Amino acid sequence: MDNSRSNIPSISPAAVVVTAVFLLVSIIGVNWFTTFVPLVLPPQASAESKSVDELFYILMIIGGVVFFLIQGMLLISVLFFRARDGDLGDGPTYHGNPLLEIVWTIIPALVIVFLAVVSYNIWTQNSEPKAAVNMIDGEETKIKVTGARYAWTHTYETNRLDADGDPIVINSGDKLHTYIGQNVDLELRTQDVIHSYWVPAMRVKQDLLPGNPDFGGRPTDIRFTPIRVEGAAYPAEYPIVCAELCGDGHGRMRGTVVVHEDESQFLAQFFEPAIYAILNPPADPVLRGEIVIQEYICNSCHTLDSLEWSSRTGPSLNGIAERAGERVAGQSAEEYIAISVWNAPAFVVPGYTEQMAVFGPDQTDANHMTAEELYSIVAFLCTQGEQSDCDLENLTEAIPQAIKTAFGLEVDISFGQDDAEASQPEAAADGSDESEADSESD
Amino acid sequence: MATIAVPLGAQEQGQAAEAVQRPALSEYLRWSVDHKIIGVQYGVASFLFFLIGGAMAMGIRLELWTPDLDLMVSGAAYNSLFTFHGTIMIFLFIIPMWAAVGNFVVPLQLGAKDMAFPWLNAFAFWLIPPAAVVVLLGYFVSPAEAGWTSYPPLSTLFSGDGQTLWALGAHLLGISSIMGSINFIVTILNMRPPQMTLWRMPLLCWAVLATSIIAVMATPFLAGALTLLLLDRVAGTTFFDAAGGGDVLLWQNIFWFYSHPAVYIMVLPGMGVLSEVLSVHSRKPVFGYRMVGLSSMGIAFVGFTVWAHHMFTSLQPELRIPFMITTMIIAVPTGIKMFSWLGTIWGGKIHFTSAMLFGLGFMSMFVIGGITGVMLAALPFDIHVHDTYFVVSHFHFVLFGGSVFAIYAALYHWFPKVTGRMMNERLGRIHFAFTYFGFLFTFFPMHIVGMLGMPRRVAVYVPEFQPWNQLISFSAFVLGFSTFIVIYNVIKSYYHGPIAGANPWRALTLEWATTSPPPVTNFVDDPIPFEDPYGYGTEAAAAYVEAVEAAFSPGGSAARTER
Amino acid sequence: MTSYVERRVKPKLSLDRDAELRLKNNRLGMNIFQASWIMVFFAMIVVNWQLRYSYAQWPPAGVTPFDPLLPSIATLALLLSSVLVRRGRQSLQADEVSGFLACWRLAMALGVAFMAIIIYEFATVSQAALATQYGATMRLMTGFHFVHALAILAVMLWVYRAGLNDMRSGRPYNSWAVEGTAKLWYFVSFAWILFYLVLYWIR
Ligand code: HEA
Ligand code: HEA
Ligand code: CUA
Ligand SMILES: [Cu+2]
User: Fold this and answer.
1) B320 C-alpha vs ligand 2 centroid, how far in Å?
2) Closest Cα of chain A to B88: distance in Å?
3) pTM for the whole thing?
4) What is the distance between the alpha carbons of residues A102 and A116, in angstroms, rounded to a whole number?
């Protein structure tokens, strides 16, 4: 038996040299590695992304060294310490080396301490509340995000007032408009399950947690500050992704962050036009309905070719007006559509399940929708189809009538118009809508 | 010659051992309280589940070949696919598979006749088939589709009855796991031969001990969580329903209090296997035996304090930092293991058997998973990659690159003991090559798509990621194919493999000091362990191996005859 | 080469040794089981605590706190029952089977009294409390505990009947069955005290 190697007292000098060489190789290798960093990350579109990427860079260096060290030592062992053919002898009886063991306990421990400190600093720096957030036109604004299966809704509670002196609320659907340098602070709420608001380009992510609706849910928030990305054309668009499994359409639950070049562009391209549209809605209920329906999350489940919706969770809305009249005996098409929106569980289309979110007149309904909005949406849907079952000539009377039959609510068909006396803005400040609904219902 | 403890039982004075017959295959289909039978039952059953779970993974990869939903009828069908893939792989494959290895090897390594509670052992195994039936039945009635983590309210208010069956099945599996673990702890603590102190115990036993301690302390939390989930689903309570004053984070806390320690349940026995395999096949003692043993305990202990690193995007922000720190600490005891293994093979005489290849493969792949684990622990970075393919990549590197590689190493290492025949080494090497490279190219690119913005658990994705996903899917098919090689090898070797003899690897632990397969009582009389389970290179060790050979393999061991 | 026989530790009579080992295993196994299973009860306490902190006050506004009087009586009964179980075991060790049976009988009666009170408490939780997690967690915890108490009581009954038979037949009594059952009953008492404190005293 070959015993020549047994009882070697300490680690051999050769091993030390080889280790040193490998450390060197790994440092070079790591450097080469890290040149790929920008390739494997989305654009750095927020102030936060810079520091997170810095952390990633550090992690790559540390990880790279550990990687090359372990793989290198393995490779050396594999190459140099194979048993020769037919050699049935044993290696040296070497049980360990306390010094070495201490070293390889202490060094990783120190690395960990370093990493923890770096991460802690970056974390506190990124999560520190900003003095002025969501500045629009010189004033702080509230921007809220609602997640519902399977769509995002962004609303801006602006400081502009409508004709009645109520603050105007802009609903920009699945788009978040912001501008370079704006400190964004979004309040997130979910209507159903947990979702997670992720903007890869901003390196931010936060879950939306269900909370007791009686107490206003359980808002969470997310903060970031868009910065300029070299070579990007503005307004630049970055995806919003839902990162928490929320069901069937989880993969489709996406949105867009639109970053405008500066505040004036933001005002000119998004804010002012949106305010204008709210103050001057088209008089035609069908046109108005086309706008209103896009502020709700209907697109997350339904297909409607005219608006380029293509989700299949719920029944298709293509040609809905052709079918609506025949679905329930004795019910007009207008009534059927109205009930399907406000009281979805009333009819479930064969082949689908009762999944639709709640849309209704009460402030507590997950998706608050006034009778006036319902009216315009029904008007719009009545035009979807070759041969509509609706009374197209007479929508302004037929639909309010249908809503009255179905829900006992009067509809003010002139809503939003400057000349209308008793008009209400389409989404008024807390409380006032409820009283409206109460007083109008009989 | 030095004094040598030779573990001869009735074969004292070197009488030739009688060849022990393999149990008839039908014995494996019956209730049996023999730990060797139960070990094989566990092993074969969990491998079948691996095939089912793996076939589902192939389905996942097929669906992800294109950015659109085309293979599946709906997003929900895809969701239930990965839900069942994850559930099967974790609860029905990895955890029972380690019970298989533990069951077969631990009593033998301890020189015991059987486990401490043979009946309970059998009962724990026989809970698994009904539990599996319950879980899998769920696939056919409005299947569970909330992921293996089953977060409410998706899993309570928005899922069908399959979710209830899922919870029931997982409940049974948890109970099985607790009973198995109690058995392991008692066996290891009480049934060692008098000469075998804790510090002379083989490292696999240390690892199984640590694993079992985790299992008995953590699994009850799973039972608690599942009880609440079931009550919410069937009894109208609202523990997780915010509208009724409940709290969705309650589930996350309790679930992860179990499921993070559970990931060490899934990898620690593999680390024990590695200590055995690396030492035997490189003919050197385990470097720093005590620290390797203790680090198992260290990992087990620290593992209980890190659970909320899975909740970095849902937990209150001020609570996140402490969990980041505890999580990172785990790198230290794991590092001790990695470096000690390197010290073990360094300067040895490495035999590139299939078992050794998979052992080395474990080290090479697990370290990547470990590094990405530490990256994930770094809170600001995790915020970006949480719930993306980066995480999917991380846990496949530790679960497949770690646990599954170790399972293959264990298979090649102990197959001769189980069946009395050697596996085909050539096929083993081919299997290794396909698995190693298939694995690497399946899961490494996932890091990149994850960082670039692909969330996990989606059936549809943006077309930019298609080339990456095609590379991943292609490699996954190669990986899937590699499984057929090992299946063929096992079947072929079972019937035609060369006779192994008692101790084909010339190892020093006790399981090799008896015939292959061992007789019903394992040893004919109380065996005496060699003074140091890893004392390779000494004369005493050589003489011990010689004596075992003479006593149990009169025809010579396979190791001798093959080379 | 020294002979194997010389070096081996002389085993005691193998039958004896097996029985001893089995008892040792049973005891350790029972201890580990108890350490393990108490974690489920801890899990329920965690549930209670996490939910109570999602309310502004506890018990929630408009809910009257539970009256600790009856549960305290039940707790006393359970504790007394545990003491009796212990005395029963001691009697058995002194070979007084009739004393064992007497203690055991009384212990079971107290156990039943405990369970009766708990059922009453469980059934009379006010609607106001039930509408909140205050009532829900109370039902969860007492209900969960009750299931355990019931199961162990059944085992006690079974041991008692076996004891009766043995007294008639004069066969030696299997002391592990008694010891194990007793330990399970202590466990039930211990778990209850945890719950009792959390439910009725820690505000
Ligand atoms: C066998 C299973 C296993 C193992 C062993 C691990 C090991 C580790 N895991 Fe992993 N993990 C999972 C299985 C596992 N994990 C699973 C299944 C999930 C996802 C669950 C789900 O959501 O579905 C997950 C998710 C997960 C997350 C959450 C990610 C997210 O959802 O956002 C995190 C975050 O901290 C994490 C961290 C770690 C760490 C730090 C380790 C450490 O233990 C790793 C330690 C090892 C090393 C570090 C390598 C060796 C060390 C050295 C060579 C020393 C030197 C090294 C350094 C100084 C860095 N894991
Ligand atoms: C031990 C655990 C384990 C193992 C071994 C694997 C193995 C594999 N896993 Fe899995 N995986 C998980 C645990 C595991 N996984 C978990 C916990 C999740 C999370 C689930 C969740 O999000 O809830 C997950 C999720 C997951 C995803 C993410 C899904 C998503 O988020 O959308 C993907 C995607 O590629 C994937 C792929 C694979 C692949 C390609 C393999 C391959 O390694 C598999 C290779 C295949 C085989 C080895 C089998 C070969 C068999 C055949 C080819 C068919 C033969 C069939 C018969 C004879 C019947 N896994
Ligand atoms: Cu919303 Cu996923
Ligand atoms: Cu974890």
Assistant:
1) 30
2) 19
3) 0.89
4) 21
